[in-house]
Amino acid sequence: MATDDRPALVGAPRRRLAWWQRGVIYQIYPRSFADSNGDGIGDLRGILERLDYLRGAPGSLGVDAIWLSPFYPSPMVDFGYDVSDYRGVDPVFGTLADFDALLAAAHRRDIKVIVDWVPNHTSDQHPWFIESRAGRHNPKRDWYVWRDPAPGGGPPNNWRSSFGGGADPAWTFDDATGQFYLSSFTSQQPDLNWDNPEVEAAMHDVLRFWLRRGVDGFRIDVVFKLAKDPQLRDNEPQRNHDQDWPAVHGRLRRIRAIVDDYDDRMIVGEVYLLDLQQLVEYINSGDELHLAHNFVFVHLPWRASAMRASIDELERLAEPRAWPAWFLENHDHSRVATRYAGGAGSGARRARVAAMLIVALRGTPFIFQGQELGLPDAEVPADRVVDVDGRDPERAPIPWRRPSNAGPGAGFSTGEPWLPLVADAEHLCVQAQRDDPDSMLSFTRRLLALRAGRPALQGGSQRTLAAAQDVFCFLREDDGHEHLLVALNFSSRRVRARVTLPESLEGRGTLELSTHAGRDAAPIDLRTLTLQPDEGVIVLVGRS
Ligand code: NOJ
Ligand code: CA
């Protein structure tokens, strides 16, 4: 690992970047983005009607791509991650024609569209599973993972469901045929048997279906579970047998080969392994995932030293050609403004620092809808809880308009929203933030514009620099032309940054952007740089 006196210098020399390297990817959770027909649930038409917000109109956020969480037909036990038809659209979200219209409208604005592919499991209402459970000798029996009970009648092994904090077995007993089936999430999400080549071929056809329709890529749900120990041996303290089995890499190469048959497409995987060495195995060879979501990063404490150590470690483990992906929010985790809240007001300030961090790091940033508004988690009273695993608070609908003008649906819906909105929708809504130059939304827009206009932020090399204890500092450099220094104060105290600059650079620069309102575009002396509580800055540095 790089130490303070041995800064890491990484990054490929300047070259043409792909869209998924240059740009910013925005995750849309369709249920909660915008409801076009007043049933309280967001839908595809709602997204289409809001594309101006995202790109291609005055005042747009300026994102380059959207990732749509699942919109396929589903019983919604896991809100769409239980798919009953991989080639359709659930009526609650619209029709396939609505999808095609959304895709075309997005492409007209130069927005790429990534869809979620859920290959580890189907819904128990999927026709494949209905057949599979119909009898032990059904031709689809082996499309899922069926086993006799252990001696004594219990589940076949010690594997646990990913939900419920590991309390429940990953097996569901089926009375009709007297066997258990593997269900790594809810019982209504039976795991497909990827050791069966017919399953692999059928799921490849699903990819081709969406590729031919014109999607630009896939986010692959729980990709690290696409191979498990075929002998179904118990998990051991030193080794999990229910995930990340070596066969996963061959399977991913075959997936990648299909995607590569089409121009300029991308796959990003949910590699939920809390070990960076295991993570890089999915991106290092260059013929598996283009991008891997890094969950180690999401679980770090809000400390400069922790961020720095983890970023340096990833840069050390990743091959130079591997491209990082950065995110701090998605639909499964508490939002940044809540998760990192320290003292008064710090959550909102840290949400800006977090955005600056992921947008300025070498790699592709993913922003979860509402992150650009600095939304906190919503309070969800017990009688409104709908998720099986406690994730409602981060899934609250987007407040578009002031409830005082638009009613309790806040422009998200004219009906009763499926989940309560955040408490302070009046001030956090898009309408309230849009024209306020000091708002989080305006800040995020400037941040994305800065990345779009500065090659060093898109493709430049990166090195971390020694700085004061609470300050995480790194330099982005574009072939020696452009040097951008990023300094982030992880404490809620005012601190002298004490950045150690390389000798080739001057101690002076121009402030390009601060997370604090009213501090933009001024000359700055880096030797005396002082950061306000929870402040981050990006400075264009001169050469000596
Ligand atoms: C990960 C998804 O992000 C999550 O929402 C879902 O519940 C599980 N995979 C199961 O598909
Ligand atoms: Ca709707």
Topology, please?
Elements: H1 19-22, E1 25-28, H2 44-49, H3 51-54, E2 65-68, H4 96-108, E3 112-117, H5 127-132, E4 146-147, E5 171-174, E6 179-182, H6 197-213, E7 217-220, H7 247-260, E8 266-271, H8 276-280, E9 291-294, H9 295-298, H10 304-317, E10 325-326, H11 336-339, H12 346-360, E11 364-368, H13 403-406, H14 425-428, H15 430-434, H16 440-453, H17 455-459, E12 461-465, E13 471-478, E14 482-489, E15 495-496, E16 505-514, E17 523-525, E18 530-531, E19 536-543
Parallel strand pairs: 1-2, 1-11, 2-3, 3-7, 7-8, 8-9, 10-11
Antiparallel strand pairs: 4-6, 5-6, 12-13, 13-14, 14-19, 15-18, 16-17, 16-19
Helix pairs in contact: 6-7, 12-16
The structure holds 1-deoxynojirimycin and calcium ion.
Structure description:
The chain is an alpha/beta fold and 544 residues long. The protein has three domains: 14-120 and 196-449, TIM Barrel (Alpha-Beta Barrel), CATH 3.20.20; 127-182, Oligo-1,6-glucosidase, Domain 2 (Oligo-1,6-glucosidase, domain 2, Alpha-Beta Complex); 462-543, Immunoglobulin-like (Sandwich). Helix content is 25%, strand content 17%. The chain has 17 helices and 19 strands. It has helices at residues 19-22, 44-49, 51-54, 96-108, 127-132, 197-213, 247-260, 276-280, 295-298, 304-317, 336-339, 346-360, 403-406, 425-428, 430-434, 440-453, 455-459; strands spanning 25-28, 65-68, 112-117, 146-147, 171-174, 179-182, 217-220, 266-271, 291-294, 325-326, 364-368, 461-465, 471-478, 482-489, 495-496, 505-514, 523-525, 530-531, 536-543. The strands form four sheets. An eight-stranded parallel beta sheet has the order 9-8-7-3-2-1-11-10. A six-stranded antiparallel beta sheet has the order 12-13-14-19-16-17. It has a three-stranded antiparallel beta sheet with strand order 4-6-5, with no helix packed on it. Helix 6 (197-213) runs parallel beside helix 7 and helix 12 (346-360) packs parallel to helix 16. The longest helix is centred in the middle third of the chain and has 17 residues, at 197-213. It is globular, with a radius of gyration of 24 Å. The protein starts with 18 loop residues before the first helix and ends with a strand. The model is unreliable at 1-9 (pLDDT under 50). Residues 35-37, 39, 41, 43 line the site of calcium ion.
